[in-house]
Design brief:
By secondary structure, this protein is mainly α. The chain has one domain (2-100). It has helices at 2-24, 27-50, 56-70, 77-100. The longest helix is centred in the middle third of the chain and has 24 residues, at 27-50. The protein is globular. It starts with a helix and ends with a helix.
Length: 101
Amino acid sequence: MVLMMIHKIGLMLAIVCGLIYFAKRTERSKKLHQFFGLLTIASFLLDIIVKSFTNIGYLLYALLLLMAGISPYFYKKSGKVAVHLSLVGAAIVWLVLIHII
């Protein structure tokens, strides 16, 4: 339960810091965005490990978040933001869908 709260708060703060970084391009907002993004991924992966990998929907969500987290390191400057944002968007849409269906 605590890990999911850390995940939710970290995700919201990562989104806010990412929007600030997208608007202002400061090094501090970039580091905060990276920190909260790593906190989000780590807390969710720990939660999945604690729950013994029982829900495949959450595993795919974690995989999408992990791909979004490492995608900026594999693309050149022109495509990095688009791929990162599309993977984060896909992860959020997938999370909403697994709760609706």
